[in-house]
Amino acid sequence: MAQAMNATAAHILKGKSLSELEAFFESIGEPRYRAKQAFRRINKHLAVSLDEFTEFPLELRNRLRDLDALPELTMGKSDLDPSGTEKALFELPAERSGRDRAVEAVWIVSENRRTVCISSQAGCTLNCSFCATGVLEFKGNLETWQIVDQVYSLMRKRGERCTNVVFMGMGEPFHNYENVIRAARILHHPDGLNLGARHITISTAGVVPSIERFLANREPFNLAISLNHPDPVERSHIMDINKKHPLPELIEVVKRYTRELDTRITFEYVLIPGVNMGAENAKKLIKLTRNIRCKINLIPLNTNLHGWRRPTDEEVHEFQNLLLEANLPVFNRGSPGLSINGACGMLALKSAS
Ligand code: SAH
Q: Lowest CB count within 10 Å: 54, 144, 206, 334, which one?
């Protein structure tokens, strides 16, 4: 049951907030200051072994070892793209049902950025028609430690810090809301990686009640919406979630979000020739977003599900120009990791080699 997996076992230190660690150390009769020491060892120094907790007495380290307090994701295969972008597979401990579970994360290199794209669920329940993850069987939500550890593991492998984290890997982050927000807060924490809130982006296909919650809590992280179609009826043809949370509702909450938090939102728009491109759709997209503080990231389709194809560069430029002429801030996000199936929507696909 996905819900039960949200409750991280009491003895696991990774993925706990500072105050949860304080409560834990108190519960085992240790002073509260151990919490900050442990938090820094795990989330700043990326410790893989309790031996690295040098300020802890040996007896305490052994006690924690007996509890298996510092689990680690097992990195399976990884694929490196010539650009330096790398996709890694992580094997998760099997559920009680015994099913194997795996997720993927991608380390994306671009000029001065090192972005880690991480997964929040094993599989996904949304079934967007263009996305390969939807083809997989859904195998549950990740726990908080399993989310942050994708970042830590890739940083250790690459031997450098990341500058950005995006929740754009497998799964719908807002269907695992608590663990995703907990993970973002840990990554943002000054005693952890201390990533700026504006360097952490959470992407949702449009889970309206979770966006409401994100807004009510005034979360400081970037929010991205996978818009993908500007027509309220046709959007349902490619995204089932539009039947549950229709476009007008989504746009209404997005408008409130940008107004009340005085911030900008990112719209992602996967370009599918014959489905959501062309002058008519550009016109609708312009009308829809004109009064919203936003930027639009175009992502050329990376899969060939349903016989769809990737747009040519000319088609992409043509569509982009229609939006630019209306003064929309629109970017072609390209496809880092295409050769290793590490690009958007491809994370379920077989590794390249
Ligand atoms: N479920 C979340 C997180 C996944 S993000 C969400 O939908 O936002 C994945 C991003 O990749 C989304 O913006 C989606 O629109 C895009 N995407 C999915 N499949 C794609 C594909 N085949 N080609 C290009 N982009 C794709």
A: 54
